[in-house]
Design goal:
By secondary structure, the chain is mainly alpha-helical. Helix content is 75%, strand content 0%.
Length: 502
Amino acid sequence: MRIKVALLFWLILLVLSSHLSVSAAPIDEWQKLMLDGSTNKFDGQYNIALQSFSKAVALAQKEKLPAKCLPIALCRVAAVEVITNRITKADIHLKRVVDLMKQQKDAGILDPQVSFWAAALSEEYMSNTKPENREICLRHACYLKGLVYGGTHRECLDCLNKLAGYYIDQNKMDKAIHFLTVVQSIMDTKYGKKPDALGETFNILAIKCRLEHKYDQAKQLELAVIKMANESIGDLRAGLPAFYSFLGMNALAQGKAAECTEYFHKALAECSKIRGLKNRKLAAKYVDLLIAPSSLDIHQAKLGVAKTELKHILTMEQMLALSKDSLYAPYTLLADAVICDPSTRTEEYVGYLNNAIAIAELPNSCFAKDIPDLYLRLGLANPIETKFKYLKVAFPKALEAEKDKHGFHATLVLFWWGWQYFKIKNTYLATQKLDTALKQATALPSANRGTLLADVLQTLAQIAWSSNKVEMGQSFANQSANEIQLQKKLNSKLGPDFYHRL
């Protein structure tokens, strides 16, 4: 590997030495120092690399070497200093590099190899994540990229966005907003002005901050969005219902109920002002973005927060009165939140799922593929509270809607159907469904069945033990354990992992 790296650097140095009209000895020595430094840097021998590069700098200053030799050597010195967190020293060399590049550019003699190594130095600055160095390193990286590529180049814009992201993380929102505005201004100059682009960027970043629990940053960004929306003559104004809703959700996540209520009221008031199909569609586009924070709240078991948010989103979608499809996500997520919350009644869960199923079963619905899973979830409703209605109806409909009657999901339906019967102590029907599931799961390829076969076997063991069939139960349990070991070897991530053994 070292030989290949050495050959690579020799090739680079050959390029550096092309078209030179100087005596062989000094340039050969400079090349050797650069190669030694590069090899040692690659091997992590930073002090030795620094010595070699520093000697190359001294040699370039002493001898009449080509103009590119000094800035290249300085770039390499600074790169090692950045890696080893000697930022103050690196900055001294950076200043010299910048001065030399400007001078050589003005004189028309700036070599592309100088720009190459200056770009490499910018990457070293960007890669330094030590907290006390991060801001200055990102700023220097942005400056270098602007010098090398030009201020409108993607490399420069990406770097400025990283700098803005750093300021968001540090809650230095004035600086973050400044650099985000700079980036958008450059984009407008390069590609043409888009009046609402900056507001949309702020809105997306606010949602991102909310997902990362950076509530103060999220609020400041969204307030900036609302200010722009109120001044907008474009589409952004239609987003006001969603923007106020977001502030309410952000407050709710922090336990600020009064602030949440205030913003939700403002959102509904703005929603009532939306006129015309075009504006309703624009408003709905922004409302749809609010689903992500609510989904995360469910995942993080903040069920009360999620239910309040989703009910508010559902109300706004109904006010906007677009297609039924816009109600599908709130209904399904509300069902998720409700079933995880022991304080909620089963009829509420069933109601949300039935509404979602009604949408999925509409002609040409884009949610038709979800029908088997929706009916499966309906079948999981408490059988006693629903008087066994969905136990008898939902599972057959789930199987009827399956395209592959013997596939993984169809077998999963059978497993849950059997489990629900076992819960109400109907071991006859439970065994009947699970036996069918056992045959189908066994026929599935090992890599495609996850823990499904193991879970079926373990449930059959539970049923056998409940009927005092000890040997039969142990046999099922042993087979289940063997299957789990097989799935572990396959590093399977498929569920359902009902018994939490993976």
